[in-house]
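Side project, low priority. Logging it here so it doesn't get lost.
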Amino acid sequence: MTQGTRAAPGISRAPGGKRPRAVRMSVELPLWRALTGYRIITLGYALALFFLNYREYAHPLGAALYMGALTVWMLLTWNRVTAPERCTRGFLAADLGIALAGILLTAVIDSAERIASGAATLPSIWAGGAVLGCAIKGGWRWAAVGSTLVAVANLVERGGAARDTIHNVLLVWVSSIAIGYIVEVARASERTLARALQIEAATRERERLARDIHDGVLQVLAMVQRRGAAIGGEAAELGRMAGEQEIALRTLVAGGLLPPQRSAAQLAEDAELVRTVTPAPAAAPSGPCDLQALLAPYAGATVSFAGPGTPVLLEAAAAAELAAAVGAALDNVAKHAGDGARAWILLEDEPGEVIVTVRDDGPGIAEGRLADAEREGRMGVALSIRGRLRDLGGSAELVSVPGQGTEVELRVPRAGA
């Protein structure tokens, strides 16, 4: 694209399994292709007018020389307006110069009677293509300059401001400036869209990292803090440092900023301590897998699991994320529902989607507690559950009544459903 605008790149695979090629999406490309067609068609129209009126020119040989030069120019440069990179400023200046030369030569080559009667100039409406090229390339300002030069040349060729000349001049001037303005608006919209897509991609990546932090590092830090406080001694100091890092990470996850309170050496030492107790991430599975096999290990003395009698196949990545969301829901039950609380997992295999329901008989969630937890940096529901389901194209509905437990319904659509 021109004017410092870049379209968001896409990837498409060439036929025959060849190397993928980059495809640029741009609102300008159809305009350039339309301009190419316009120049070719209007050249044919100008040549047809020339052949029909050949004997009526005062100097037909001069008209033939100009039309021949115009045809050669088009044969050499027809593809210069198929893409913005090829349509340079030098080409636009030369193209506009040829159009202006043809308009001014008409006053010398054609007869005074034909000019007075409103006969078409040698390039005829082909000259509009040069003005449209300026409009698409440089916006309404370039269009105003190009159309003004064409208007002046037409007035000079006609020898006065005749009504039909004024009408044609105003039509070219207004339409070219309008097209140039539309192109500028389209460019601005495309830049805004590209920026929005970048922000959305960055936000999704940040949420994914936040989920990983919540499911791994934060839980390990919380465990170290509790165990250190219980053991005492040097372990208590380790627990205190783990608690500080947990607060810092929760603040970052929530999008806030935390002023540094420890030196770089201390932070490096703390990070090394955390790495010694953080489990290594498992490799991501590939291919379809049975979701029941991922959910069944959650069953235990206080957790019941029920599912259909047949395997529930789901894309491996989606199944892993859904199982992680179920694990996050069960973690919330263990932390907030109390020691004696029970939980039930129900897996339903529908034709177009997979539904997993996690229910507990705990005290429920007080109104406004989830919003308070997000502000405090505790993003278990927002990221580990709802964020995962949103990335899968599904949904997570949480229903809780104080004193009657909590129910989380997770829905994931099947691929192609």
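Brief comment: The chain has three domains: 9-194, 206-277, 288-413.
Revisit when time allows.
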